[in-house]
Amino acid sequence: METVSLGAGLASLAFWGFIAAVSVAGIWDGVRKREAKHETVRRLVEGGKDIDPELIEKILDINGKRQLDIDFKVTALWILPVAVGMVVLAVILGWQFPVVLGPLLGVAGLLFCLGIGFLLASKVVANWSDSKNPPGENN
């Protein structure tokens, strides 16, 4: 049975510590942005001027009107070239090590399917935003 050295343990701890720090930082950043939006609305209200409800909705993004179709399309445009790169990597490594050709082509196929899925999702979400009642809303 192999023993794990102290260096390997510390490297593992550093890796998972980094993952935890990035996750916590992302959550904290979201909370701070939301607090800044609320502070902006509070200052507008304290100013005593008439406030347009559309402006408040735009600032707070109450209805969550992100353009998900664009987000999905951008994600697809990132993933599809990576799939092509994985095919190239599979071919190059497959010349030297034939055993890796199959698994790497499988990964490339998976990435390609994900990219196509994101493109289809962008079209579906774009159709939802065109209709008055997207699926999942109870109006």
Features:
139 residues, mainly alpha, 2 domains, 0% strand
Question: How would you characterize this protein structure?
Answer:
By secondary structure, the protein is mainly α. It folds into two domains: 1-65; 66-139. The protein is built from four helices and no strands. It has helices at 6-46, 53-60, 68-96, 101-130. Helix 3 (68-96) runs antiparallel to helix 4. The mean pLDDT is 84.
Helices and strands, with pairings:
Elements: H1 6-46, H2 53-60, H3 68-96, H4 101-130
Helix pairs in contact: 3-4
Q: What is the H/E order? A: HHHH
Query: What composes the largest sheet?
Result: none
**CA-atom Rg in angstroms:** 24 Å
> Mean of the pLDDT scores?
84
Q: How helix-rich are the residues, as a percent range?
A: over 70%
- List the total number of helices: 4
What's this model, at a glance?
The chain is mainly α. The chain is 78% helix and 0% strand.
